[in-house]
Amino acid sequence: MLSREDNELLTRVDRGTPMGNAMRRYWIPALLAWELPAPDCPPVRVKLLGEELVAFRDTQNRIGLIEEHCPHRRASLFFGRNEECGLRCAYHGWKFDVDGRCVDMMNEPEHLHFKEKISVTSYPTVEVGGLIWAYLGSPDGRPPLPNFAWTQAPETHRHVSKVVQETNWLQGLEGGVDTSHAPILHRVLKADSKRPGFKPTHPFVRSKAPTLVVDVTSYGYQYASVRPLDEATVHIRTYQLVLPFHQIRPSQSEGGHALVSGHIWVPMDDESTMVYNWDYSETAPLTDDDRLERRLGNGPLDVDQSTFRSVRNKRNNYMLDRQVQKTESFTGIEGVNVQDRAIQESMGPIVDRTREHLGPADKAVIQARRLLLEAVKTVRDGRTPRGVDGTYYALRAVEGVLPKDADWRQALTPEMAATRFEQTV
Ligand code: FES
Ligand SMILES: [Fe+2]
Fold first, then answer.
1. What is the pTM of this model?
2. 319 — pLDDT class (breaks 50, 70, 90)
3. Which of 15, 158, 251, 388 could form a disulfide with 143 if both were Cys (CB 3.0 to 4.6 A apart)?
């Protein structure tokens, strides 16, 4: 449970809010690099932390991320023309370069030099790992590059997608650090089921309720779920939380080899989130099938690739099939992350955390909130919060079955991620 004040503090991200100030200390994914495929391509709308922006790639391949509304009379620059090194408003022809400077005005005499007095907000960007990241904070606080291990894998070995979630960002993140729901919400009921999810044979499902171990680190935390499997063994799965909104977890390719995967819950505004989904393999290229993300429901067959809205959404009850729910899967909803979005959106746009009843299974959720509150206070005091420096660069996440008394922190190595489980998601 949280007080009303703390719930507000953690969930509101507009410019000037305490959490908004904290988030503006980090590099933030703004869009997929392929959305701006070539110099002078069409501009793209971007909503980040409540700010309406437009992104474009100029003639010299530089990326501009500037406020969406033209400072003349507020027309959207999304309708603008991406011309020779600048984006020109379609209404009266004011033109802006990637730094936000007004470089031309078609409706004012040149000799007035009016353009020299006009500029729009612009934010620095970097292209890392198939994403364009933006920095919305003060110029002197720009952090080291967001070189997560997954961003450094060759393009053939990594994949990233995105999908809109119709809730506050924290609801998504809390779902991502909540291991206890996974073998319940995502369970399939029969061992021979073709539906995505955890089968009855998976150690996740066969084992007993988990104990959570949370190790706070310089970037956030690592946490492990420890699930007794039988007299002699336990199933262990580790997750990483990198502040403010990155999850890293073990997973598997369609062909069954080990991957590391994760989500990034980027606030568009207080009630909508762009969820980035990434996977990478350290050993083999990803296949076309992997890139469809059918099990998760995040790929091009399930998500409109211009609006990034899910085909299965709250307006159609996520295409819930009650017969399937009775006989084949716990939810009757297809796609593991569709199930997550359905449940998290069902909690309301910003869940009322004053009305929760948290137990030991929610330990990682509770610790995430503590660290986020700490980050807010740290930034408020003018200091640097966890997760800004590069201590997260090499992180991975693994799972495995170990003898009951094994020291899992020592025994769980990246090689253990190669342990094959049926449909780890
Ligand atoms: S509104 Fe953009 S030039 Fe007039
Ligand atoms: Fe889930």
1. 0.96
2. very high
3. 388
